[in-house]
Amino acid sequence: MDAALGPPEQMAELEEDLTPMMAQYYELCRQYDDALVLFQVGDFYEAFCAAAQRVARLCEITLTQREDSTGQYPMAGIPIDNAESYVETLLDAGYRVAIADQVEDPDEVSGVVERAVTRIVTPGTLTESELLGGADNNYVAALTEGERYGLALLDVSTGDCYATSVGSATAVADELSRFGPAEAIVGPDVDVDRDAVFGPACLVTRYDADAFGRERAEDRVAQYFGPPERLLAGDAEIRACGGLLAYAEYTRGSSGAVGPDGEPVDPDVDPAGTLDYLNHLTRYDPREYMLLDAVAVESLELFERRSVRGHENRTLVDTVDETACALGRRKLTDWLRRPLLDADRIEARHGAVAELQRDPATREALAGLLSDVYDLERLISRVSRGRANARDLRSLAATLSVIPDIRDQLADADARLLADLHATLDPLTETREEIEAAVRPDPPQQVTEGGVIREGYDEELDRLRSTEQSGKEWIDELEASERERTGIDSLKVGHTSVHGYYIEVTNANLDAVPEDYQRRQTLKNSERYYTPELKDREDEILRAESAADDLEYDLFCAVRDEVADEAERVQALADRLARLDVLVSFAEVAAQYGYCRPAVGGDGIDITAGRHPVVERTEDAFVPNDTRLGSGPLPAAGDGATDDGRDPFLAVVTGPNMSGKSTYMRQVALICLLAQAGSFVPAKAADLPILDRVFTRVGASDDIAGGRSTFMIEMTELATILDAATADSLVLLDEVGRGTSTADGLAIARAVTEYLHDEVGAYTLFATHHHDLTAVAAALPGATNRHFETSREDGDVRFDHELAPGPAAASYGVEVASMAGVPESVVERSRSLLADAEAADSGVDKPGAPAESETATDSDADSAAAETPGTAENGTAAASTGEAASGGHTQEALQANGAAVEGELPESVAEQLASLDVATMTPIEAMNALADLQDRLD
Ligand code: ADP
Ligand code: MG
């Protein structure tokens, strides 16, 4: 166990003798032994002993010592004023942090101040806005295992709650990767490979077994959401939800909550109450949504950038985000994370987007109104937890006040979703009026010091304030009246915070002081007095002021409670505003960037002039491309249509590096995904099927930035694809088979292609440098070849980024290397090697694979660009990558060149070489064959 957690060993020996304060610290560490305890001492949060050492090192603060009668303890203090950034550092280091605050006023107690853990900050249950990265969600997950796996997810800061169940650990990982939880707890019965299921970034711990028990879980779910059987499907789901709620309570320090050990957490501390803002649970069936696993989410760069070869792209969500408020931004992320499978629901969204796209005036008006919408989900969550201040309530009221205008804008809407929104957007008029009547327009941050409640709201309060006011006025007039009464012109009335009100008379005038003046304070040149009447007035002012402040606080809390009673309505409103915002945003993007309305539910993918939504924003002149996979018969019957008249559903895409293969494949996936999320798509026209899942496999060479061990991962992912893909899936294979020797890689690539073609029938795009694969595609009825055109201009290569039928005829690797700035001498040398190879090649050319040698040298140029020039120049880089051996003969040619063998290869060698079936050879077989050939040369 981590020495920074649990009761410090150093203190254990002295337990009986510890000072009262250290005994308190020790006890809290014992109770919260899975968290790092930060212990308030005045203006600091302190940690002691091993925890202090850890905190000091992580937060880069000074380690000091505390010394008392029992000994010396290492101590590290975090200033409370800017504790957030330090706490964040501790969370990043994988700790939970238990905040133990002083819960008594040190001025009012003698002896040691009582402290209690008021909250436990964990990566998944953060709520303070400082610690949350903007508008994004922050999930904590709970997993149980029974007949099925139960999964529950909760965003503590918004109250978003999801539950589902799935049949396998892989499916759990897939669902989790939609949400990317920062933290997870698992039930006692869970037995999964944590790293594989949750990923390395997630903090996973076991939690109190009882909380996951069926009965306890049922009770808890019922308390928050209603009857569990009605809401949830199956035992595992109920237990996951119950465990998660228990954990959420625990981190809030709520009464009745138990810690990880099952011990009740301090029952007296209940700053947050139960989590009543959680009254909406979304139970979903993964089968209702397109499945996007972690690999696809990552490689399509939906939510997070990944930098490949140093250049950073924007994410899809950034690119299509024109939302006006935080609610909308979160909903947009949710919709992209869970694209729909139901054609009616998808078309309903498209219908709304179409209407808004046609009507810029309404769209702009709505966007303007929505930009005044505060983050209602977070506001109402704070209200429910009793943490909202007066400004929060005013923000809520301000948001409610724009609802009628939003509804007006939707009054004539035809599209079903918009008409529904018009009918159901709830302005909560009484709630708004109540807040506006009670709370001042520009209230202070503090709710305990007055200035919060409006005049005229409460008679008693007004009376107290007017008593206070008239007392102050009386005192304001006192100076003039006392001067007149006493005849002392220099007499002054003043106030200090320590002594209160006084009348000051200079020493020269002391003779004139009347009888009823009582001495309060003696200064050097004057005396200060009060009169019984002044004292009375003063007391009256103070009493009224303090009573008024207290009353204001009570009134404020009453209003807040009233608002909390409407939490469910506010959440429903938040949800609708969020949907509206996304629809408006989709329409705005469609209008600004020329997206079209896709038809969905068809039999194949048919995209006219499709574009990559992200790349088109950064490229000056993006070249659109068509895609036809498995749709109607090919108009200009190219290389074969399938038996049923559909055109091929599998395309092998070839072309030199940088020609646009990866971009093209991703653009097809993103277009389908956007369509199913309800958005228009970047194309002239699109007729799309409903995909059940998008698979991506990005080859090793493209994944170097990810720093992952290549081949094994590649094959694992490939296995998943072949196992799980269906005829309704889209499979993108980008350079699969690069992680191993060419013969192996090609063999695998070929077998995969055949399997996807024969057994799966998935829509497939396969970008490859294995030119031999084009022959495989040409031979399969449902497969076709596509390639990227390139043209030469003045000896320079130009990428047209234009997709054409058939396999690539030539590649331009050397020119790419030259463009990339590889030294001219290396480029020249490469050109001459290429020419030699082509010459050698012509002798052994076999029909059906005209461009093999170019493909091979394309790879040479790749490595030349990637590695040091020296490696490439000595001619071994080609061999060492293993790729140059594509087709087997290039390396022969290089060797022949190196050995200065003149003339043609011996006929027998050439024949044997041509007869090798490289695609099916193992590396050992290939080496033996090579050795054999070499023998013959000698
Ligand atoms: P490949 O996978 O063939 O190596 P990429 O898809 O990575 O090529 O594209 C290389 C670069 O070319 C991209 O970063 C992009 O800037 C540009 N590009 C790709 N496709 C297009 C296109 N259709 N129109 C304009 N530029 C494009
Ligand atoms: Mg690529």
Q: How much of the polypeptide forms β-strand, as a percent range?
A: 15-25%
Name the overall outline. Answer: elongated
Let me know the number of strands. 27
Strand ordering within the main sheet? 13-23-24-25-21-26-27
The major beta sheet can be summarized as:
7 strands, mixed
The bound ligands are:
adenosine-5'-diphosphate, magnesium ion
Alpha-beta content class: alpha/beta
Round the Cα radius of gyration to an integer and report it: 37 Å
Mean pLDDT: 82
What percent of residues adopt helix (DSSP H or I)?
A: 40-55%
What features would you highlight for this structure?
single chain; 7-stranded mixed beta sheet; 6-stranded mixed beta sheet; 34 helices; 27 strands; 45% helix; binds adenosine-5'-diphosphate
Task: Walk me through what this model shows.
A hairpin with a 2-residue loop joins strand 1 and strand 2. The strands form 5 sheets. Strands 13-23-24-25-21-26-27 form a 7-stranded mixed β-sheet, with helices on both faces. The longest helix is centred in the middle third of the chain and has 34 residues, at 532-565. The two termini are 67 Å apart. Helix content is 45%, strand content 16%. The model is unreliable at 266-273, 307-311, 634-639, 700-708 and 843-902 (pLDDT under 50). It contains 34 helices and 27 strands. The protein has 938 residues and is α/β, with parallel strands linked by helices. Residues 661-662, 702, 734 line the site of magnesium ion.
